[in-house]
Amino acid sequence: MKIYINENLIEAESVTDKNEILELVETKLDNEVIDIIYLDEVEVSLKYFQENELDLDRIDEIKFETKKVEQLITETLAEAENYLPKLKNALNNSAELFKEGKEADASDLLDKTLEGIQWYLEVINGIISLIDNKELKDKGNKILSDFTQALNRAMVSLQNENYDYLGDLLEVEMVEYIDKLSDFNQELLEEY
């Protein structure tokens, strides 16, 4: 079996286990992450490669395509930049629905919005852990901490069926934090 990293053949004759292959590949990465894996030209994710039983004896070639960490951060931040305004609109729409007494519709929309917020928070946490700029790291952690507290207040309001307060909280405080996250996202983009 031949193993490549970005078209470069690596010496790996003695490596037969997929965990050993990953360890070997990771030792050869320089400020990069694995983006895509090709098993005999079939594209799979890193997660698929890690979690599934693979008959490596039947594979002739494994190619690992990588991306520089900075490139991955930039692409993710650009995606988030387009996504945050949609979350803001969804929060405003949820708030409006709660105020109109349409709790079922509002709750459905809020659930979907919270999934999007969860994605963004995970992404930004990951990015914050990778950056070296202490000032930006501290600022990001503070915004995330405050935003999490606001999210907790929103969840308590939802559980207590205090829909008017929840609507106000979504419309004012949560939207304000989305704006702060959007500004922070922009600062990170300028940094990278």
Protein model, in words:
By secondary structure, the chain is of the alpha+beta class. It has two domains: 2-67, Roll (Ubiquitin-like (UB roll)), CATH 3.10.20; 71-191, Four Helix Bundle (Hemerythrin (Met), subunit A) (Up-down Bundle), CATH 1.20.120. It is built from six helices and five strands. The chain has helices at 18-27, 46-51, 69-99, 103-130, 134-159, 163-191, and strands spanning 2-5, 8-10, 32-39, 42-44, 61-68. It has a five-stranded mixed β-sheet with strand order 2-1-5-3-4. The protein is elongated, with a radius of gyration of 22 Å. This is DUF8042 domain-containing protein. InterPro entries: DUF8042. Residues 77-182 form the DUF8042 domain.
- Major beta sheet summary: 5 strands, mixed
Strand content: 5-15%
Report the oligomer: single chain
**Strand order within the widest sheet?**
2-1-5-3-4
Total domain count: 2
Number of helices: 6
What sort of overall outline do the alpha carbons produce when their principal axes are compared?
Answer: elongated
Structural class: alpha+beta
Q: What is the string of SSEs from the N terminus onward?
A: EEHEEHEHHHH
Rg calculated over all Cα atoms: 22 Å
Please estimate the helix content: 55-70%
